[in-house]
Amino acid sequence: MLNPDAKIIAAFQQRPETHLSLDELASLVAVPRATLTRRLDILAGLGYVFEIHPHHGYRLAEEPDRLTADAIQAVHHGGTIGSRILVFDSTGSTSDVIARHAARARDGLVVFAETQTRGRGRQGRSWASPRGKGLWFSILLRPPGGVAQAQRLTVLASVAVARVLRKESGVDARIKWPNDIVCGARKLGGILTEYRDAVAILGIGIDMNLAAEDFPADLREVATSLLIETGEIQDRNRLAGRLLAELDRCYRLIENEFESIIRDWASLSVTLGKQVEVRQGDRTWRGLAQALDSAGRLVLRCDSGRVEHLVVGEVTACS
Ligand code: BTN
Predict the structure, then answer these.
(1) Which residues are bridge partners to 176 per DSSP?
(2) What does residue 126 show for φ and ψ, rounded to 5 degrees?
(3) Ligand 1 neighbourhood includes 93 CB (under 6 angstroms)
């Protein structure tokens, strides 16, 4: 059920060029006029700019570049993922917030933060999360098949993220096994699935409005953002809503239709069909990245003739 602010934002977003009278708006969002004027004042205080025409009413002229649950829910509501959305100004890691809520919270809780002070990536790396520049969020899920489906979560999340970035921002987002979203040779986002106490925590980071200098110096040559790729500032609430909608759609396929996710993953992958070297700690395999298996593991036909099914690793293409 959408709250009044989310309904008001959605009503304006669905009619971007139109002025709405207070009576029209009141009937669209089903709240009394007195409540409506109070809510419009509150939204204005939050940074929403309304153009007011003496005869035609209100038009939403500008939205604040601040993540809010209402603005995200105006784009996506219903479903499992996003059934509850919390937005923090600053957290250590959004995945730790999910872990703290896990015992009491339902599946689909999503936690966003404007900035993370201890954002983490794979293999104990830190994840730079500059304030207001990206989407840093984590989702609580209890997949029907338990921990055995944790790898499927990474796979389906990669497909959902790559698809939405392609559609909404027009970038050539692709998937680099095991969990990178890339654009050309540079990383645009990452996915970290953790499994603790029978819950999966799906953490997603997307570099949206970072300029080159917003990245730590050691990442400037290897990372990119939607801003760098498109030259345009992107609407974070809108993209967040679209991502949750697509993640929710893909999550429904995890049990019985995962084959279709694997097909989409294969068509978006920059890894499959290549001769690669995969490193896991002090172990290294070389061979052909042949397929994803039904658990979401990489099937590597090694030069030795053995076939390995790998969950994690650092992959580099061999020339
Ligand atoms: C990687 O590519 O190494 C995975 C990066 C995952 C980053 C996200 S940001 C939201 C969530 N919270 C974290 O601390 N990490 C994930």
Answers:
(1) 180
(2) -90, 160
(3) yes
Note whether 189 and 181 are within 8 A (CB). Answer: yes
Q: How far is the centre of ligand 1, averaged over its atoms, from the C-alpha of 158 (Å)? A: 13
CA 190 – ligand 1 centroid, Å: 6
Cα 46 to averaged position of ligand 1 atoms, centre (Å): 28
Q: Which atom of ligand 1 is nearest to the CA of 116?
A: 14
The H or E element containing residue 151 is helix 150-169
- Cα distances from 297 to residues 25, 39, 251, in angstroms, run 50, 49, 17
Whether the Cβ atoms of residue 291 and residue 284 lie closer than 8 Å to each other: no
Q: Which residue, 250, 249, 251, 248, is CA-closest to 82?
A: 248
Tens digits of per-residue pLDDT, 192-204? 999 988 899 999 9
* SS3 label, residue 169: helix
Q: Give this prediction's pTM.
A: 0.93
For the segment 49-67, what is each residue's pLDDT rounded down to a tens digit?
999 999 999 999 999 999 9
Can you give the C-alpha Rg of the chain in angstroms?
Answer: 21
Residue of minimum CA distance from atom 11 in ligand 1? 203
| Residues β-bridged to residue 318 | none
pLDDT classification of 211: cutoffs 50, 70, 90:
very high
Q: Is the CB of 68 under 6 A from ligand 1?
A: no
Helix (H) or strand (E) run with residue 228 in it: helix 226-230
Q: How far is the CA of 133 from the centre of ligand 1 (A)?
A: 14
Can you tell me the distance from the alpha carbon of 6 to that of 226, in angstroms, rounded to the nearest whole number?
26
